[in-house]
Amino acid sequence: MSDCLFCGIVNGSIKADVVYRDETVIAFKDIVPRAPVHVLIIPTAHIAMLSDLTPNDDKIVAAVFRATGKLAEQLGVAKSGYRIVVNCGADAGQTVFHLHYHLLGGRQMGWPPG
Ligand code: AMP
Ligand code: ZN
User: Fold this and answer.
1) Per-residue pLDDT for 2 more than 90?
2) Which of these, 16, 23, 49, 73, could form a disulfide with 28 (CB 3.0-4.6 Å)?
3) % of the chain residues with pLDDT over 70
4) Where residue 31 falls among pLDDT bands split at 50, 70, 90?
């Protein structure tokens, strides 16, 4: 999608600190990290939010989750613990409407989130 920030990262027109990439998934460091480890894991296909997923996207969702688990190991937080966050819509604070999973770790996190 031409006016989407994260599609720009996928196609290389916007620079990002990419930590993982394959055909289906890209992960890159969040530009405003909220924890010592904070990466965003996104499908390379433009899907705005969870409620837009269709059964055709099942393989994409599986690939994103598999990459998330592998990244937690690679980034050294699999044992200490980490959190996956998907903000959906205005009340949750979603600002970029290209589906993305926040992977946060490297510090103690509170519950419930604010
Ligand atoms: P959300 O609020 O859940 O939609 O998350 C969007 C995230 O994208 C925020 O944590 C931003 O800090 C992050 N972000 C915005 N622009 C960039 C960028 N150019 N590179 C990396 N992360 C970004
Ligand atoms: Zn997009």
Assistant:
1) no
2) 16
3) 100
4) very high
Q: Is 31 in the pocket of ligand 1 (CB under 6 A)?
A: yes
Examine the residue annotation and report whether 102 is marked as an active-site residue of this protein. Answer: no
In a domain, 39, yes or no: yes
pTM over 0.90: yes
Instruction: List 41's β-bridge partners, or say none.
Output: 27, 101
Asked whether residue 111 is assigned to any structural domain, the reply reads no
Does residue 100 lie within any of the structural domains? yes
Pocket lining: 93 vs ligand 1, CB cutoff 6 Å: yes
What number is the average pLDDT over the span 32-45? 98
**Could you tell me the CATH number of the domain that includes residue 47?**
3.30.428.10
Our answer on whether the CB atom of 94 is closer than 6 Å to any ligand 1 atom is: yes
For the record, the structure tokens of 34 come out as 């909220």
| Ligand minimally distant from the alpha carbon of residue 94 | 1
Omega cis (within 30) before 43: no
